[in-house]
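Record 1 of the preview.
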Amino acid sequence: MRERIEPVGIPSLHRGEEVKKQQVRERILSVGVIPVIRATSARHAMAGIEAICEGGIPIAEITMTVPGAISLIEEVAKRMGPSVLVGAGTVLDASTARQCADAGAQFLVSPGFDLATVEFARGKEVLMMAGALTPTEVMAVWKSGADFVKVFPCGEVGGAKYIRALRGPFPQIPMVPTGGVSLKTAAEFIRAGASALGVGGELVSAAALESGDARTISDNARAFVAAVQEARTS
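->
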């Protein structure tokens, strides 16, 4: 049985370094927040990424629903280097996973469980966060070799209480609830045992992206980071 993964300090990375999977894991656990970037254009998505970085979250999960998502992953990887972890979200199959990894994605996220995608990620040494909801699915995802289990849509089945219930039989499995995570619920999820939080519109709101309101997104990022750190130390 694999050891439970505990949060550690943010590793110091520099441009030109090759970022290893363990460093990606450490960064995710350290920050505790994975911003899920959904936008109507690559330009809006890039603005959102810059805003969350300004707010203290050097992580961005670019979903495949963003127009030109794979090209955007490549752009972010080249422009921002290892100072920002860029991942691919809504990855539904191994073919897409390969394209994202080739573009520079340092982690892959799926809303559900596709064994071929997990096996590809393991073979490429790319961190994989596969989706699950039921206890049976959580077991299947973890046994397949995924690095994290994304519990989705968590808010629809009990939120933090559901994470606490899953942690009972699965204390060794690092879970990332997504769906239903807000500033009001973030601390509850962490205290319930979540290793990190997947946060979409509550952090990178569509309205802020459309209006160019980067300050609101940066302020949201700071608030989420503070909520997670406070919950971990309380």
